[in-house]
Amino acid sequence: MTFQATVLTLYPEMFPGPLGVSLAGRAREEGKWNLDAVQIRDFAIDKHRTVDDTPAGGGAGMVLRADVLAAAIDHARADQSNRPIIAMTPRGKPLTQARVRELSAGPGVIILCGRFEGFDERIFAGRDVEEVSVGDIVLSGGEPAALMLLDACIRLLPGVMGAASSGTEESFEQGLLEYPHFTRPAEWEGRTIPEVLRSGDHAKIAAWRKSQSEIDTRLRRPDLWERHTGARVQSASGARHEDEDPGQ
Ligand code: SAH
Q: Are both 127 and 196 inside the same structural domain?
């Protein structure tokens, strides 16, 4: 099955961009995924091909019109594939590896890229659009965010990554950061490789990696660590935390 991506944008020339080379580029040539970059302006309804207007209530910048966006979305949905419609916006739900995995297992995505101040809010409920953020940063447009989302999905498509296992051992897949990596030379500028990694003892190496992954997650991402340990307590007891139960 081909993963079908439709990107609605004011800058279709930005695509496939970095997705045209390396792993994603090869996968595209092999027909594992396909991309259609659609110019939102083609769905404008006036002779000036206007896509935006001033914000209701005043203020700086311009807002993308819901009627124009809806026409572009309806065009993309005409294939009846039931693909989720995702708008890239800093107001959206932070993107997670779990959501990426779900998306990559489906038929594809329709992605809406914002510009200026963003979208008329009514489009989200009006077309059942999922709002997604790629981090607590503000980009000048949704295109780089769309490229990120697509890159993350494409590498998980069947047959895209070389070693099948490298998809499931990575950061976030188990709710933890991955352990650190090393390669030759064994000594570089006086810095060595942890002895255990050169021991050839696979059980010891696995144990070291597991513990390193836990230590690094705890130190670097206390938010992930808390969720990870919380989830373990929950599944071990088979019940919800007492402090989360409104009935207690
Ligand atoms: N005024 C908006 C920011 C608009 S930035 C606000 O303060 O929330 C212009 C466009 O860039 C957005 O419509 C969105 O499509 C994209 N964008 C910016 N930051 C993003 C982020 N963190 N995640 C996803 N998309 C983002």
A: no
